[in-house]
């Protein structure tokens, strides 16, 4: 904890306890910035609300650090609060998003994207890891003129396609923000876990005081610059408490739902989530398709049928539809989240459903048992958007207070966001290093 002493009723902070940079959050944005900014001439502190989970991997451990935020309207929005943030429960997908929209705002991240893709090991999923489940969709969709292809992934050598990416890879065979966080620590950065940041105040002497609650006690940390990377649901809360009144609106969550079918006489094996993807509809129609299956949802459907139901989970195929949803959501100062499904969103799902149904039928699916899952959200974004809350250097109206996570997105992504956040953080890191 920073050392504070008082003389004549004025609080002072010892210079050795003032960090050059305080980074809030250790996910894709926070870990990248910690890595880029740490070094012998700069002091960096990372404040992470969650804990450092050592034992990851498997559904039992996954349930310990996944956090589901339910909107007032009933939409479940998934995130993770722990070291590495939501990269820990990602599917390892590495797809660029909103590159054109950022360029229109004067933000060119093309060089940073290439740099990031090289570091995380971005490459299309290897053919050996694609099971017959996705190969069936690849073949049929190609014959129908659709453009499914292996999903770009940030997997490491040794991955055998066990399919547990989204429950935390216990063997560390996919890139996560922990990779960058570890490098930052080696470079001298410090990290405090369990630090729930409440607000950021800029003092009269120009130093930021970051107020934190930890284990029921209030603490303060002090820095010359602060970068909020706590995610598009948490960052706007901190901004609102800190006097940035424009934050919290324009929330999108990349609404998604799954469509399932059963193929008679099939026996599909496990494969990585979202093995193949079709983004041809993204720009014009606002949705993408990717093979994915939630076995528990399929099992519930099977259990709801007659005892003589002829299919099991190994006969099932799932395709996830993810849309660029209407940014009609909001994060309120009390932490409540409003996010509903707009009529335009439903039209996108309906159009995608017809395409998926045609693919399933061409693959030989039983037409009687094609069903959909509930609508959920996965990529909250836009609650501190560029041009509204932050400028092109990602700084708020408070000089020295920055934001670098999906909050700053000026457009709805509708695609995986991690590699774009990493690139934005690299760009911001370069900018901040040039200032110090």
Give an overview of the whole structure.
By secondary structure, the protein is an alpha+beta fold. It has two domains: 15-122 and 167-248 and 381-435, FAD/NAD(P)-binding domain (3-Layer(bba) Sandwich), CATH 3.50.50; 123-165 and 251-372. The chain is 26% helix and 22% strand. It is built from eleven helices and 21 strands.
How do the strands and helices of this protein lay out in sequence?
Layout: E1 4-7, E2 10-13, E3 18-24, H1 28-37, E4 44-48, H2 59-65, E5 66-70, E6 76-80, H3 99-104, H4 110-120, E7 123-124, H5 132-144, E8 149-150, E9 152-153, H6 177-186, E10 190-193, E11 196-202, E12 208-214, E13 217-228, H7 235-241, E14 256-262, E15 276-278, H8 282-285, E16 287-291, H9 295-303, E17 316-323, E18 330-331, E19 337-338, H10 343-362, E20 371-372, E21 401-403, H11 418-435
Parallel strand pairs: 3-4, 3-13, 4-10, 13-21
Antiparallel strand pairs: 1-2, 5-6, 7-9, 8-15, 11-12, 12-13, 14-17, 14-20, 15-16, 16-17, 18-19
Helix pairs in contact: 1-6, 1-11, 4-11
Largest sheet: 7 strands, mixed
The secondary-structure class comes to alpha+beta
How much of the polypeptide forms β-strand, as a percent range? 15-25%
The percent range for helix content is 25-40%
Number of strands: 21
Highest CATH level, the class of the largest domain: Alpha Beta
Question: Radius of gyration from the CA trace?
Answer: 22 Å
The CATH architecture of the largest domain: 3-Layer(bba) Sandwich
Which parts are unreliable, with pLDDT below 50 for 5 consecutive residues or more? 1-10
What's the overall average pLDDT, rounded?
Answer: 92
Q: CATH homologous superfamily name of the largest domain?
A: FAD/NAD(P)-binding domain
């Amino acid at each position: 904890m920073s050392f504070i002493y008082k003389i004549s009723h004025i609080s002072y902070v010892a210079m050795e306890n003032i960090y050059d940079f305080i980074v809030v959050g250790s996910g894709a944005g926070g870990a990248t910035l910690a890595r880029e900014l740490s070094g012998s001439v700069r002091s960096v502190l990372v404040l992470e609300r969650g804990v450092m989970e050592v034992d990851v991997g498997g559904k039992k451990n996954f349930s310990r650090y996944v956090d589901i935020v339910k909107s007032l309207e009933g939409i479940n929005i998934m995130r993770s609060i722990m070291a590495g943030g939501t990269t820990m429960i990602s599917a390892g997908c590495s797809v660029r998003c909103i590159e054109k929209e950022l360029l229109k705002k004067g933000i060119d991240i093309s060089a940073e994207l290439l740099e990031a893709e090289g570091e995380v090991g971005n490459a299309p999923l290897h053919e050996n890891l694609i099971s017959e489940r996705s190969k069936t969709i690849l073949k049929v969709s190609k014959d129908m003129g659709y453009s499914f292809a292996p999903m770009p992934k940030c997997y490491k050598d040794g991955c055998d396609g066990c399919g547990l990416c989204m429950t935390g890879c216990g063997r560390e065979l996919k890139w996560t923000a922990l990779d960058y966080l570890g490098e930052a620590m080696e470079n001298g950065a410090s990290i405090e876990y369990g630090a729930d940041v409440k607000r950021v105040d800029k003092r009269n002497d120009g130093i930021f005081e970051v107020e934190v609650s930890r284990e029921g006690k209030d603490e303060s940390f002090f820095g010359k610059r602060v970068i909020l990377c706590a995610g598009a649901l948490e960052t706007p809360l901190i901004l609102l408490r800190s006097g940035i009144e424009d934050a919290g609106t324009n929330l999108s969550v990349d609404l998604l739902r799954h469509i399932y079918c059963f193929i008679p006489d099939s026996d599909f094996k496990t494969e990585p989530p979202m093995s193949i993807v079709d983004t041809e509809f993204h720009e014009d129609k606002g949705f993408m398709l990717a093979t994915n299956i939630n076995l528990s949802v399929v099992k519930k459907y099977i259990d709801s049928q007659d005892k003589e139901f002829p299919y099991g989970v190994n006969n099932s195929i799932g395709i996830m539809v993810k849309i660029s949803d209407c940014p009609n959501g909001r994060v309120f100062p009390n932490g409540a989240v409003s996010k509903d499904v707009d009529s335009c969103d439903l039209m996108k799902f309906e159009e995608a459903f017809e395409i998926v149904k045609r693919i399933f039928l061409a693959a030989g699916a039983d037409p009687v048992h094609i069903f959909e899952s509930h609508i959920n959200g996965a990529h909250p974004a836009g609650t501190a958007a560029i041009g509204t809350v932050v400028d092109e250097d990602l700084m708020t109206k408070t000089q020295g207070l920055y934001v670098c996570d999906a909050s700053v997105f000026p457009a709805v992504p509708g695609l995986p966001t991690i590699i774009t956040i990493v690139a934005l953080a690299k760009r911001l890191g370069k900018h901040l290093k040039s200032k110090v």
